[in-house]
Write a structure and sequence with these properties.
Four copies of one chain form a homotetramer. The first copy, chain A, has a domain of 126 residues: Orthogonal Bundle (Tetracycline Repressor, domain 2). In chain A, helix 1 packs across helix 2, helix 5 packs antiparallel against helix 9 and helix 7 crosses helix 8. The termini of chain A are far apart. Chain A contains nine helices and no strands. Chain A is mostly helical and 185 residues long. The first copy, chain A, binds a DNA duplex (21 and 21 nucleotides) through helix 3.
Chain lengths: 185, 185, 185, 185
DNA sequence: AATGAATGAGTATTCATTCAT
DNA sequence: TATGAATGAATACTCATTCAT
């Protein structure tokens, strides 16, 4: 308990707030929102507890910042994949690889997203984050698909990801491709 | 301090365990898994705190029982809707009404389901519950659709429900119908 | 810090709530309301911290109970002194000895009373306690004096006590007697 | 996070220490000594937190300065009222109007005074302030009354003020006048 | 001369769980 | 069989004060 902690003389530390947000994302991934506490984040970032409440007014603020960052990262991938597609066929491929490679590839972010959904159900501040995020991914899809299709496709992607996230036998890339093709055919 | 507590003389109370599970579901719905505590459940069921640990070995046991019951209720609706369908067309209508009426109709159970998904991500005992549930709804769909279609359809349903649950403008029944038709066409 | 605390195996302890209220009064006397914390009270009563919040919903509740008890004790002395007086002269003597002996005699209760006054200025629950107490002491005085005199006398008593409490040279019994005589002459 | 904080470019600011003392008095009035913190004072004065410990060695120093200023203000009113009185009758009127108008007129200073009394009970530095203050108001009274009368009158004033401060039905000016007349008759 | 950042001790409160009756 | 009392670990958050810039 004691003796193992090396001295930690780090008075001047610009960018600490930033590192704390990253640490929060790590903790949410590993322990869930329910297991995300000031202490756990501080420990993960190797920072004294008091530092948390210096940089953030409340734990909710930390969560909101963390999820905002997560949503921005995922949304960027969406944008990049879809803006790189030159025609509809390429867009379909982009969606498939988005789900197979980006979303399901990293167990990590997948759990994060689901955590965010649930947290948003109780926390209005977080709900704003999810909604902005949903809107942004829909817009990315609308580069290539009409509004109705974009919306439905977005829901299908959500379902495929969630299902795979929770299943013992998640869908293979081939199965993902099949489902999306079928819908978009 | 006195006078406000109504008498509660219920020493012999068969079925109390049962009522506690229902109370747990109520609390999960209203406060989320994170806000579900022995105390809150006991208060909701109007039962002394000590009664909780008398009937359940741990809070996790309570959660598992509660979610098992919830899953059974939802699965039953799935079964009933789909077994009532005489042909594929009727099955398609059944799926549509399942989503529009049963799942989205009651905000209640919708939140409950998402809560379960996330809780399952951390808790192996709960994961078994979700998986049994997923398997069962897939089976119900397989009465009318081939295995691949059933699986994909199940994911689509999930996505539509989740999306609507979190959106400020949830899909209308007409939009739900459109999405499912399109997929099954 | 450790090693000096003897085992404290006291699971069954009826009357604990009561002892906690007394402990709270002790702490208020010694440390002031500002220095009265759950921890300090628990330590004084030699009881685990968790016990405090088991018996009281909040620290304010503890304060209210403690001051209510204090007020009741002081009011009782008032009642006894004054009801023992057979005529007006005896009543005057009773008031004098009340101030000199009972109120100023014990530095203890004197500080307690002033603490209560200030706490009441911010805390409506405590204000109710002070007001009930004021009313009661006025009633006791009204056994022997008309309403106006009772009220004014009550204020004079307050002033004499407060002044003496804070002064480096508090009034002697003779001076107290002189002041009261002069007013009642 | 941004945009809401108005610019505050006040590097050179003589008289800041002074403004901080006034801000402290404001905070004590509104939140009590218990609620008076570096942060609250800095916020009230619209000054960075670090400025507090730059100008004052400790919070106690701030309190002492604040109360000293408060006592000086009240004492000045005492002096002015009483030095304006040309004879004993005028002095009696002066005392009455002191209590009715100056002390009870402004709820403000009334609470402040009582706060000071209690704080003084625990804090020797503050006790010196109250005692100097008491001495000074007694001196003012001694311009017109003998030493014993001055002392007793001072206590009566204290009692009338405290009583009125805490009562739901504070004394009317007429009642104040009656009490003081009776004592001085 | 002045301040934003940092920190560690402390606060009220919640809670799962244990235990004596 | 049932329960009120008890407990210790944990939680979010506050704050006086120190320090590097």
């Amino acid at each position: 308990m004691s003796g193992s902690t090396p001295r930690r003389p780090r008075r001047h530390d610009p960018g600490r707030r930033d590192r704390l947000i990253d640490a929060a994302l790590t903790v949410i991934r590993e322990r869930g929102v329910a297991g995300t506490t000031h202490r756990e984040i501080a420990r993960t970032a190797d920072v004294p507890l008091g530092s948390m409440t210096y940089h953030f007014a409340s734990l909710d603020e930390v969560l909101a910042e963390a999820f905002t960052r997560h949503a921005a990262l995922v949304a960027r991938v969406f944008d990049e994949r879809l803006s790189a597609a030159r025609d509809r066929d390429a867009a379909v491929e982009a969606v498939i690889s988005l789900v197979s490679d980006d979303l399901l590839g990293s167990q990590h972010d997948l759990v994060l997203s689901v955590e965010l959904y649930v947290a948003a159900a109780r926390n209005p501040a977080l709900r704003a984050v999810t909604q902005a995020w949903m809107a942004r991914s829909r817009q990315a899809l609308e580069r290539h698909f009409d509004a109705t299709t974009a919306r439905e496709l977005d829901a299908l992607i959500e379902g495929l990801v969630l299902h795979s996230a929770l299943s013992t036998d998640p869908m293979t890339p081939g199965q993902i491709r099949h489902a999306i093709y079928r819908y978009l055919s």
